[in-house]
Recover the amino acids of this structure.
C-alpha cells in the first residue's frame, strides 16, 4: 500500500467517524442508565385534582444520576416531593432532585420520596393508566407507564 495515498484516506475516514459520533450523540444520550419499574399512581376520588406517583429507580451506570423533573399526561404539573417526619408530624415538601446512586437504586414510595401530580384533568380510577416522562440531570429521559391502584393499597 502506498503510504502517501493511504494517509489522506485515513484522515478522511477518521473525520467521517468523528462526524458520525457527533451526529449520534443525542441517540446515545437516550440510552439512559436509569430505569423505572414497579410504577403506580394512587387512585383519585372525584373532586380531588392531586395524587402521588410511586416507582423504583435503578441506575446501572457508574455515575450517580438525579431525577430533576417530569411530566405526566393526566395533569398540569409534576413535582418531586419528599415526605419526612418533623416534630412528630409527617410533612411533605418539594425537592430539587432525587438522586440515584451509581449501581444502586432509589425507591419512591408512600412516606418517602414521591412524584406529585397536580391539576388532574379527571378523576383516576383503578384500571386507568398514567404515562409520565422523567428527565435526569444528564438530559436523558425515562418513560413510565403506571397503573392506578386503590387508595389504601401499598406495594
Ligand atoms: Cu407530595
Amino acid at each position: 500500500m502506498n503510504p502517501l495515498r493511504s494517509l489522506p484516506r485515513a484522515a478522511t475516514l477518521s473525520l467521517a467517524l468523528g462526524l458520525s459520533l457527533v451526529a449520534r450523540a443525542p441517540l446515545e444520550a437516550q440510552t439512559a442508565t436509569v430505569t423505572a419499574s414497579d410504577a403506580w399512581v394512587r387512585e383519585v376520588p372525584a373532586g380531588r385534582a392531586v395524587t402521588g406517583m410511586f416507582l423504583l429507580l435503578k441506575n446501572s451506570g457508574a455515575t450517580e444520576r438525579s431525577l430533576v423533573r417530569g411530566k405526566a399526561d393526566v395533569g398540569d404539573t409534576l413535582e418531586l416531593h419528599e415526605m419526612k417526619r418533623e416534630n412528630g408530624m409527617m410533612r411533605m415538601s418539594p425537592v430539587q432532585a432525587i438522586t440515584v446512586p451509581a449501581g444502586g437504586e432509589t425507591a419512591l414510595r408512600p412516606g418517602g420520596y414521591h412524584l406529585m401530580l397536580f391539576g388532574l384533568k379527571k378523576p383516576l380510577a383503578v384500571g386507568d393508566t398514567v404515562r409520565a416522562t422523567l428527565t435526569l440531570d444528564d438530559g436523558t429521559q425515562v418513560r413510565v407507564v403506571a397503573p392506578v391502584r386503590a387508595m389504601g393499597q401499598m406495594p
Observations:
- Residues 52, 81, 92, 114, 116 surround copper (II) ion (CB under 6 Å).
- Strands lie at 34-42, 51-59, 65-72, 77-86, 89-94, 98-100, 105-108, 113-118, 129-136, 141-149.
